Amino acid sequence: MRTIVFAIFQLLATAVCAQKPPQEEVKAVVLSLFEGMRLGDSAMVHSTFMETAQMYTILRNKEGQPILRKGSLQKFLNAVGSTHDQVWNEPIWDIEVKIDQDFAQLWASYAFYAGNTFSHCGVDAFHLFRTEEGWKIFQITDTRKKEGCKIPGEIKDKFQ
Hints:
The chain has 160 residues and is of the alpha+beta class. Helices cover 34% and strands 41% of the residues.
């Protein structure tokens, strides 16, 4: 009898330990998006999004005025899946995840590299909804700039 109780306890303990905390689940979805971008795998990227996902970029126009540009998930997926000469890398750092019930936000600084060439940096803000299949991105908003980036040395070194 003790052996059976011990085996059940061990099985339950293993199952509990195997589950990721929700913050790690959210982070895993976002990192999967970036891995899909790096691989040029639009199906992998698409799997991280809800079908109704919205995309926005905040940047400055030639006159220095801030603008909000609405993107298209389908155009983004087409771009990821089309042949491009260089690998797209978007490392993130200073990651903050906040969750309230079935809503999560991940906020992180990022730098975008085409191959080893720096393109731009900014902040990514992801909004996710917990579905029956797990966390899915329903909105991304990012900022973009080419100067004044505080990219950690270990990331800069990786792309030089």
